[in-house]
From TrEMBL:
One of its GO terms (cellular component) is ribosome. Keywords: Ribonucleoprotein, Ribosomal protein, RNA-binding, rRNA-binding. HAMAP family: Ribosomal_bL25_CTC. Belongs to the bacterial ribosomal protein bL25 family. CTC subfamily. Pfam families: Ribosomal_L25p, Ribosomal_TL5_C. Residues 2-87 form the Large ribosomal subunit protein bL25 L25 domain. The gene is rplY. This is one of the proteins that binds to the 5S RNA in the ribosome where it forms part of the central protuberance. This is Large ribosomal subunit protein bL25. It comes from Campylobacter magnus. Part of the 50S ribosomal subunit; part of the 5S rRNA/L5/L18/L25 subcomplex. Contacts the 5S rRNA. Binds to the 5S rRNA independently of L5 and L18. Residues 99-176 form the Large ribosomal subunit protein bL25 beta domain.
Length: 178
């Protein structure tokens, strides 16, 4: 479990000092809950996020455990080092909007016909309760040939989850390489 520290001061001087010590600045929030200003060791945070097998993961700040998802993050424009992350608490019975990643499986037929797979949308917006939160939308690209695409309406949605994207939007497709 990822452990963080509570930030006493949220001014820029304290923030710069924490970043210099190798911390990632974070905010934890949810509906009906006061914001928690905290910081995590940058390398520990990256390892925890890469090692997680579900969309939500646990963090511990000031003795309290939160089930969170990454809502938004900011990177340095030149070095691409994480500067800030917003974590949203997943409430089991509260309906909220989440971005769910799209994961592809298989090898498309179009790749053998000099095609390329192009991802138009890597994450899809859904509305659901925290207990119904899917980990990812898994799309099999094996039947895709050059010129074919997968639309939002082609992706199976689990019970209790409402898709918030327009149905006619292409998620991924196979195009001819130039």
């Amino acid at each position: 479990m990822l452990e963080g520290i509570l930030r006493e001061s949220i001014d820029s001087k304290a923030t710069k000092a924490l970043r210099k010590d190798g911390y990632l600045i974070a905010n934890i929030y949810a509906k009906g809950m006061e914001n928690v200003h905290c910081a995590f060791k940058l390398n520990d945070f990256i390892k925890a996020v890469k090692a997680k097998d579900t969309l939500k993961f646990s963090v511990k700040v000031a003795g309290k455990i939160y089930e969170v998802v990454v809502a938004e993050y900011q990177k340095h424009p030149v070095t691409s080092v994480l500067k800030h992350v917003d974590l949203r608490v997943v409430l089991p019975n509260e309906v909220s909007k989440y971005y769910i990643p799209v994961v592809t499986t298989g090898v498309a037929k179009g790749l053998k016909n000099k095609g390329l797979i192009v991802h138009s949308k890597r994450r899809l917006l859904v509305k659901c309760a925290g207990k119904d939160l899917p980990n990812a939308f898994i799309v099999d690209v094996t039947p895709l040939d050059v010129g074919d695409s997968v639309l939002v309406r082609d992706i199976p949605v689990p019970a209790g989850v409402v898709m918030r994207e327009p149905e006619s939007v292409a998620v991924l497709g196979c195009v001819k390489a130039k």
